[in-house]
Design a protein that fits this description.
By secondary structure, the chain is α/β, with parallel strands linked by helices. The protein contains nine helices and seven strands, in the order ααβαββββαβαβαααα.
Length: 253
């Protein structure tokens, strides 16, 4: 049985609820046939991966959703063999560069590389050479949280696509919509908690879990679920803001 968040994840650009103008521009880009390398960046949880998968579906159809895990053995120039795991469809290949330390051959039409900002400078220069070598047969989609650690030669060879996090008003509107569609508030709370725990810093996880338990208890007592859901979201934002400010102060001293 699939997770609730995966079951209802948008599967096409037309179904995306946020940044609809950007989705239209991406659809036009695909339809015109001029598909460049892409550098998709934005904060964790903003929907970068969802948007990329919608783009691939626009390119190749529903086949991109038929994913399989593949294990490949790569022989390095020093004759050392390393094994990497990839997620692939018949049309694209997804690789996390932090799992490997050497260049792999490009077999698919599109290669999706996540966490590109965590690559070393040498690895990024090797990636830039790979982009040039396979430009005629392959397209790369690079995904990262920030472009500040991505070297300029890579940025200049890609079309930058910024996926910003939804605004407070957009989040509130979505909460209202979920409630009006009879999604139980407890399910909404648990889904929010799951996503936050997957993306927030380890030091915050205990506080976030305790806070979620508190507001879930309030849900059982109150009559207006939206108030408690909004309070949970606002409280998390306040805690995370304070955490970031404390981190910046610690770096300055």
């Amino acid at each position: 049985m699939s997770l609730w968040v995966d079951k209802y994840r948008p599967t096409s650009l037309s179904k995306l609820d946020y940044h609809k103008e950007q989705a239209t521009q991406l659809r036009n880009l695909v339809q015109c046939g001029d598909f460049p390398h892409l550098l998709v960046f934005g904060p964790s949880g903003a929907g970068k991966k969802t948007r990329i998968m919608c783009l691939l579906r626009e390119l190749y159809g529903a086949g991109v959703e038929k994913l399989r895990i593949e294990h490949q053995t790569i022989t390095t120039p020093s004759k050392k063999k390393i094994e990497i795991s990839t997620i692939a469809s018949n049309y694209h290949l997804e690789v996390n560069p932090s799992d490997i330390t050497h260049t792999i051959s490009l077999y698919s039409s599109v290669v999706l590389l996540t966490e590109v900002d965590k690559l070393t400078k040498d690895a990024q220069h090797a990636l830039r050479r790979t982009m040039e070598k396979y430009m005629s047969t392959c397209r790369l989609i690079l995904c990262c949280n920030s472009t500040s650690k991505v070297i300029a030669p890579i940025r200049s060879r890609c079309l930058a696509v910024r996926v910003a996090a939804p605004s407070i008003e957009e989040v509130r509107g979505r909460l209202y919509e979920l409630l009006t569609h009879c999604i139980p508030p407890e399910i909404i709370m648990k889904s929010l908690l799951s996503e936050l725990l997957n993306n927030c810093d380890g030091q915050l996880k205990a506080d976030v879990a305790q806070m979620a338990a508190y507001y879930e208890h309030r849900l059982q007592l109150g009559s207006k679920a939206i108030y408690h859901l909004e309070a949970f979201v606002a409280k998390f934002m306040a805690i995370y803001k304070r955490f970031m400010e404390d981190g910046l102060e610690a770096m300055m001293f």
